[in-house]
């Protein structure tokens, strides 16, 4: 017996519905951030007007068009670093000498230290990184051109919109870094502070320019109350030191670099790791900051005279 037309139409509708539901959740990563255009353009104006006006005027609308043009309406697993070339060119600006700060597995601490480019300028403090930081994005064949339900992770496909974006940005950032540059590692990370593969090992260090970089400072920072997995000259940090030596870069390595350690201790003022044992008993590391604060306040007062 032949099925009726109604039955066939109903079956076809059900199959299409199932396929669409499968596509809606086909990837393991979060979908495109809602209101992506408003966020990117808003961040752009915020950056050039208040965060870092020294970069000069930028065409934020053109930057958005270049950004979305790299992946909108495309196969989410067929987006390549070269697709972001126009975006990189439109957002490019100078990175101050001696201010580059590279990192692995300690993003929050890095950005507390960099202070939006005031102390150092990590990739996320540049315009190209600032606009996309903490956002999710990928293309779709839907009417909007974006997949708001899910995006592929790097384990699902390497040539996805976000992975390719950060690869392109990392290469550019490394090529434009100069003078003494800093690398901050997390010494409490299971497996070691210098993972391979990683953005640092695969896309940043290979693009350091020997004629621009004079020295590299490695800071291996244990977490407060964290285990000591890595230290200078040991484990994965020793591997990083070997890589830098092989590439001809002079370096110094510091375990729990004091200035950064003091910053970590802001959240743990009473922790034993945030005090030093002197001959006269325990002395808080805050005492070491008094001369610094006096200098800052004097300079502030002179500015207001």
UniProtKB/TrEMBL annotation:
<protein>
    <recommendedName>
        <fullName>ADP-ribosyl cyclase/cyclic ADP-ribose hydrolase</fullName>
        <ecNumber>3.2.2.6</ecNumber>
    </recommendedName>
</protein>
<keyword id="KW-1015">Disulfide bond</keyword>
<comment type="similarity">
    <text>Belongs to the ADP-ribosyl cyclase family.</text>
</comment>
<dbReference type="Pfam" id="PF02267">
    <property type="entry name" value="Rib_hydrolayse"/>
</dbReference>
<dbReference type="GO" id="GO:0005886">
    <property type="term" value="C:plasma membrane"/>
</dbReference>
<dbReference type="InterPro" id="IPR003193">
    <property type="entry name" value="ADP-ribosyl_cyclase"/>
</dbReference>
<keyword id="KW-0520">NAD</keyword>
<dbReference type="GO" id="GO:0016849">
    <property type="term" value="F:phosphorus-oxygen lyase activity"/>
</dbReference>
<feature type="signal peptide">
    <location>
        <begin position="1"/>
        <end position="24"/>
    </location>
</feature>
<dbReference type="GO" id="GO:0016740">
    <property type="term" value="F:transferase activity"/>
</dbReference>
<dbReference type="GO" id="GO:0030890">
    <property type="term" value="P:positive regulation of B cell proliferation"/>
</dbReference>
<keyword id="KW-0378">Hydrolase</keyword>
<keyword id="KW-0732">Signal</keyword>
<dbReference type="GO" id="GO:0061809">
    <property type="term" value="F:NAD+ nucleosidase activity, cyclic ADP-ribose generating"/>
</dbReference>
<keyword id="KW-0808">Transferase</keyword>
């Amino acid at each position: 017996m032949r099925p009726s037309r109604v039955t066939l139409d109903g079956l076809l509708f059900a199959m299409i519905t199932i396929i669409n539901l499968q596509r809606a959740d086909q990837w393991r990563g979060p979908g495109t951030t809602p209101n992506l255009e408003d966020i990117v353009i808003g961040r752009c104006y915020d950056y050039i007007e208040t965060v870092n006006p020294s970069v000069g005027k930028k065409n934020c609308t053109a930057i958005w068009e270049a950004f979305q043009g790299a992946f909108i309406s495309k196969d989410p697993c067929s987006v390549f670093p070269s697709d972001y070339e126009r975006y990189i060119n439109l957002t490019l600006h100078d990175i101050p000498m001696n201010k580059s700060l590279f990192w692995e597995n300690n993003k929050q601490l890095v950005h507390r230290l960099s202070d939006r480019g005031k102390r150092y300028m990590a990739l996320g403090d540049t315009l190209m990184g600032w606009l996309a930081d903490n956002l999710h994005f990928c293309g779709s064949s839907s009417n909007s051109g974006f997949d708001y339900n899910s995006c592929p992770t790097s384990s699902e496909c390497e040539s996805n919109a976000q992975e390719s974006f950060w690869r392109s940005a990392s290469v550019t950032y490394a090529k434009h870094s100069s003078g003494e540059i800093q690398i901050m590692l997390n010494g409490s990370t299971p497996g070691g502070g210098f993972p391979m593969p990683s953005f640092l090992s695969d896309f940043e260090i290979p693009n350091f320019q020997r004629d621009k970089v004079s020295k590299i400072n490695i800071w291996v920072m244990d977490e407060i109350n964290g285990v000591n997995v890595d230290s200078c000259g040991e484990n994965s940090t020793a591997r990083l030191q070997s890589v830098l030596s092989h590439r001809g870069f002079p370096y110094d390595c510091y375990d729990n670099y004091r200035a950064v350690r003091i910053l970590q201790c802001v959240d743990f003022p009473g922790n034993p790791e945030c005090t030093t044992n002197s001959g006269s008993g325990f002395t808080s590391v805050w005492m070491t900051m008094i001369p610094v604060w006096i200098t800052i306040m004097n300079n502030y007062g002179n500015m207001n005279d």
